[in-house]
Design brief:
The complex is a heterotrimer of chains A (455), B (99) and C (367).
Chain A: E1 6-9, H1 13-24, E2 30-32, H2 54-58, H3 62-78, E3 81-82, E4 86-91, E5 94-98, E6 103-107, E7 110-113, E8 117-119, E9 132-134, H4 135-145, E10 147-148, E11 153-157, H5 161-171, E12 176-181, H6 185-197, H7 199-213, E13 218-219, E14 223-228, E15 235-239, E16 245-249, E17 252-256, E18 259-261, H8 264-269, E19 273-276, E20 281-284, E21 297-299, H9 309-326, H10 336-356, H11 361-365, E22 372-374, E23 379-380, H12 381-391, H13 396-403, H14 416-427, H15 431-434, E24 446-447, E25 453-454
Parallel strand pairs in A: 1-2, 1-7, 2-3, 6-25, 7-21, 9-17, 11-12, 11-17, 12-13
Antiparallel strand pairs in A: 4-5, 5-6, 8-18, 14-15, 15-16, 19-20, 22-23
Helix pairs in contact in A: 1-3, 1-9, 4-5, 5-7, 6-7, 6-10, 9-10, 12-13, 12-14
Chain B: E1 5-6, E2 14-19, E3 22-27, H1 32-39, E4 44-45, E5 52-53, E6 66-69, E7 74-76, E8 87-89
Parallel strand pairs in B: 2-8
Antiparallel strand pairs in B: 2-3, 4-5, 6-7, 6-8
Chain C: E1 2-10, H1 14-25, E2 30-33, H2 42-45, E3 49-50, H3 60-71, H4 73-77, E4 88-92, H5 95-110, E5 116-119, H6 120-126, E6 136-140, E7 144-145, H7 148-161, E8 165-167, E9 172-178, E10 181-186, E11 191-199, H8 205-211, E12 219-221, E13 223-228, E14 238-241, E15 246-250, E16 256-262, E17 264-266, E18 271-273, H9 276-289, E19 297-302, E20 306-308, E21 315-318, E22 325-329, H10 339-352
Parallel strand pairs in C: 1-2, 1-11, 2-8, 4-14, 11-22
Antiparallel strand pairs in C: 3-7, 4-6, 5-6, 9-10, 10-11, 12-20, 13-16, 13-19, 14-15, 15-16, 17-18, 21-22
The chains are: A alpha/beta (455), B mainly beta (99), C alpha+beta (367).
Chain lengths: 455, 99, 367
């Protein structure tokens, strides 16, 4: 039997789960991840020079983190694992990989995309100042670099990771200036009963209680107005739930409004994407078992709809299972029905979280004209609106070609959701009709001096 | 003053690097971004006059922390570990001879 | 759905919408049918070089007239589409290439196109960003660059403002001609009746011509393009090489727009894809002639679907078989600068049946 060449992109919970499943069934996939260490985001491993215990780094998720790291160590013994390697392009069944020094290509028979997610942000005046970072970034800094992102940190946004990260920072001894959530108290209370049904929800609520008991100011129903500072963050100004203007001194603002799937590779490969109205996400069309519209591409984890690491683990195994089935290889999986039920149960918790931390669409859509939306190209909300008004168009790739939003290095990852909201509101259309930025290779930049291609 | 603050795991071998010509002690395992922001408040300057930038996502998504070394190499600061003798420039956009 | 119109235009590239604008000025009713969006293919994905230099001698009179229209764009369509006359430099990498450039300069002189030949020393004095391997160049000061993403849509809006109908996301599936005129069917089920039909359908021009039993060989190619992150502005002039195998220009925001080689496509599905390895080859060639390119960062590749004729010049002119059928397609990868004049030509052909510019060499039955 010819050895099937399988590549797994992503060494987070979904990717590791898939890799382990394949290895135990006799397949030797290649595992690739752009980060220097495995674990994805939530369980990102520290560099080997760091000595903190998992309990210190991951708190009550320590046990799960240790499991993920053991999985990787077992996997790394058996197969080719390429960390620090970014998949920059895909052409039919050839993957292009950038390892920081040069580009290599790797042909494959089957591909599992477990590419995870990244922060959703909402711009406001001053958000490009040094000292403003994302929620994911705050996690990376603390977990993998042992650094707090500032001396007095304010957390802003709408995400369960907001109080979670603030709590981690508190426990690590950093000064948390406060937490500003856009979600109203009434929304929180409405979501509370469902939250309390799940152990994770109860843990989250107790975390918030602990923060409040520590005297950390927590404000709900806020409208952030601007971040102030000359060369770096000095303070954040916001309206509280009663509409009063407040100013909090700080030297760092951590922003997080949820997460967005990294599905550029699936898009580039030619998989069909569809708009999931329930969660306002663009997702890779799949059959519920990881198979996409392309027979050789599978998806798993947060890279296809943000559902959390527990779902990601299960989906990784499910996708690998589908791949094995498609190769007519014997596969044993704990009852598929049981697994799918587990996924469903997890999705109920996810829905509760979404209700408790809703993405404030209006905040994004009503951004002032003068606020910068696209950091890479320095394009303002006003320029986006102008391009749409003059052309009469609202499809996001057309607007990109007219005013340059999303044409920069990050290919619209940071500005995409806000741009879509602006266009939706301006033209009275739907997010689905506005569309998403089309992926283009290289999906992340390659310095020209390193742009040499080898096998 | 710096942006980042070390609060853990400070017992690691030292690595000497240079930031805008100034000799700095980083620690083995630091990323270039960490090293630069433990020293100051700027990784680069926006090409379009928006002022200093210090990265944003810290995980290789925002592309806002590309930094140039003295000998013309460019790399993403948040995903590149420090190496002994690195010499970095933070006073420019992502290319040379720009103020 | 039925529509009665004087002129139906198939294809919403610059040629089609510029034609629509001019026809409205002549008082005719016009409808443009575009299967995607105005300027989706060649008109929008090209390099953006506004160039007379290096053209086939038959194209030079048209190109000259087009160059005049480029200056008038703000009045004509309300925007200059970032057009700037920054000059075009065509580099020679060998003595043979330099000879070719010298030949062209003689031809250019006949057409009163100003060209300056530069030897190695004066070239590197004037353009210090160039590397050692360039032995000479030909410089055309009146050439320049513009933003291709803006041009066709701007012409389209001007045409609509002038009263043209533009149907986007509506492709023409068939067209017939009889003594009473043309009957056109679209994929939205619309039936269009027109007196005149304009075939400005780019890389699909041969398909449309084929409906009327006019057969030409058209090859589809996909210019492989890439762009870098912004860099300090160092390259004002638009650069090409003799042989045209690759080209680079710097936008005033600092990005380097580079092209060379070809990607792949599926014309039926209107899908095209650039190739990373082709982009890499181009970048290596560029670094050789312009060393500072090695300081850049490649951020994106793209391509589109373009139609190439066997002799590398377009088909422009009346149909040989059907009266009132006008062809204007197959611009073979260098139609951007000609777009504006082609609009005028289409209009003239429709209203007069002839054209004041010499378009005989572009006749559809020349093969």
């Amino acid at each position: 039997m010819k050895a099937e060449r399988v590549i797994i992109v992503g060494a987070g919970p979904a990717g590791l789960s898939a890799a382990l499943k394949l290895i135990r069934s006799g397949i030797r996939p290649t595992l690739v991840d752009e980060a220097a260490e495995s674990g994805g985001q939530i369980f990102r491993r520290q560099p080997k020079e760091f000595k903190r215990s998992p309990q210190v780094v991951y708190g009550f998720d320590a046990k799960s983190a240790i499991e993920e790291h053991r999985k990787f160590d077992e996997i790394a013994k058996n197969i080719d694992t390429r960390l620090g390697t970014m998949v920059c392009g895909i052409e039919n069944q050839r993957l292009y990989l950038f390892n920081g020094a040069e580009v290599n290509f790797l042909d494959f028979d089957r591909l599992i995309l477990a590419t995870g997610a990244f922060d959703t942000v909402i711009p406001l005046p001053g958000w490009t100042l040094p000292g403003v970072f994302t929620l994911g970034g705050a996690q990376v800094s603390l977990k993998t670099q042992g650094c707090a992102v500032g001396r007095r940190i304010v957390f802003l946004g709408a995400s369960p990771l907001l109080p979670y990260t603030a709590f981690q920072y508190c426990m690590a001894g950093a000064e948390v200036g406060g937490i500003l959530e856009t979600t109203s108290l009434s929304s929180k209370l409405a979501a509370l009963p469902e939250m309390l049904k799940h152990s994770k929800g109860r843990k989250g609520v107790s975390m918030v209680a602990k923060l409040v008991l520590k005297g950390i100011p927590l404000r709900l129903g806020v409208k952030p107005l601007r971040i102030e500072g000359n060369k770096s963050v000095k303070s954040i100004v916001f309206l509280d739930s009663r509409g009063r203007e407040n100013c909090w001194d700080c030297d760092a603002v951590i922003m997080g409004y949820g997460f967005k799937s990294e599905n550029q590779l699936a898009d580039l490969a030619g998989c069909h994407l569809y708009f999931e109205a329930q969660t306002n996400e663009w997702r890779v069309e799949n059959d519920g078992e990881g198979r996409t519209s392309l027979p050789y591409v599978y998806v798993a984890g947060d890279g296809n709809g943000v559902k959390g690491w527990e779902s990601a683990r299960i989906e990784g195994e499910l996708a690998a299972n589908s791949l094995l089935k498609d190769l007519n290889l014997v596969s044993k999986m704990s009852e598929e029905i049981e697994v799918k039920n587990k996924l469903k149960k997890l999705s109920f918790f996810r829905k509760a979280l979404d209700r408790a931390f809703p993405y404030p669409h209006h905040l994004a859509a009503e951004i002032e004209d003068s606020t910068i939306v696209c950091r890479c190209e320095l394009i303002s909300a006003g320029e986006i609106r102008q391009a749409s008004k003059v052309s009469g168009e609202f499809e996001i790739n057309r607007i990109k070609s007219f005013c340059r939003v999303g044409m920069g290095r990050c290919q619209g990852r940071i500005c995409g959701s806000t741009t879509a909201e602006i266009l939706r509101l301006l033209q009275g259309t739907s997010l689905e009709a506005v569309g998403h930025f089309r992926a283009q290779s290289p999906v992340k930049p390659i310095p020209t001096q390193n742009f040499r291609i080898f096998e | 003053m710096s942006l980042l603050k070390r609060i853990a795991d400070t017992d690691r071998p030292k690595v000497t690097i240079f930031i805008d010509g100034v000799e700095i002690q980083a620690l083995l395992g630091d990323t270039v971004l960490t090293a630069i922001l433990l020293h100051g408040k700027r990784v680069r300057v926006s090409e379009f006059g928006d002022g200093p930038r210090a990265g944003f996502c810290l995980m290789g998504v925002c592309q806002d922390c590309w930094v140039r070394s003295h000998n013309g190499k460019i790399f993403q600061a948040c995903t590149t570990p420090v190496e002994e003798g690195m010499s970095l420039v933070t006073t420019i956009g992502n290319s040379s001879n720009e103020s | 759905m039925k529509l009665n119109i004087d002129v139906a235009i198939i294809g919403g590239g610059t040629a089609g919408v510029a034609g629509a604008l001019d026809l409205r000025k002549q008082g005719l009713t016009v409808a443009v049918f575009e299967r995607h969006k105005i300027g989706s293919q060649a008109s929008g994905v090209n390099y953006g070089g506004v160039r007379q230099q290096g053209r086939n001698s038959d194209e030079l009179p048209l190109s000259k007239r087009s160059r005049e229209i480029w200056e008038q764009l703000p009045n004509l369509i309300g925007s200059n589409c970032d057009f700037e006359s920054t000059g075009h430099l065509k580099l020679a990498r060998s003595e043979k290439e330099m000879e070719d450039l010298e030949q062209f300069s003689k031809l250019a002189a006949k057409h009163k196109l100003e060209i300056e030949l530069l030897d190695h020393r004066s070239l590197r004095d004037r353009f210090p960003v160039l590397g050692e391997s360039v032995i000479g160049a030909s410089y055309c000061p009146s050439d320049g660059k513009a933003n291709p993403r803006l041009v066709a849509p701007a012409f389209g809006r001007a045409a609509i403002k002038a009263g043209a109908l533009i149907f986007e996301k509506e492709g023409v599936t068939n067209a017939l001609h009889s003594s009473t005129g043309f009957v056109i069917e679209t994929d939205k089920g619309r039936k269009v009746y027109s007196r005149v039909l304009v075939n400005s359908s780019g890389a699909w021009g041969d398909t449309v011509a084929g409906w009327f039993d006019e057969h030409v060989v058209l090859e589809v190619k996909n210019p492989n393009m890439f762009v870098t992150a912004p860099m300090p502005y160092r390259l004002k002039v638009n650069i090409g090489v003799s042989g045209a195998d690759f080209y680079v220009r710097q936008t005033d925001r600092g990005n380097l727009i580079c092209g060379g080689g070809f990607g792949i496509s599926d014309r039926q599905a209107s899908l095209s894809r650039p190739k990373l390895d082709v982009a890499q080859e181009t970048s290596a060639r560029l670094i050789d002639i312009i060393p500072f390119v090695s300081e850049s960062m490649v951020i994106r590749t793209w391509t589109g679907i373009e139609g190439f004729m066997p002799d590398s010049i377009p088909v422009i002119g009346m149909s040989e078989k059907i009266p009132e059928l006008v062809h204007a397609f197959g611009f073979s990868g260098h139609g951007f600068q000609l777009g504006p004049v082609v609009g005028e030509i289409i209009s003239e052909l429709v209203t007069k049946g002839s054209c004041s510019l010499p378009i005989k060499p572009f006749n559809i039955n020349r093969f």
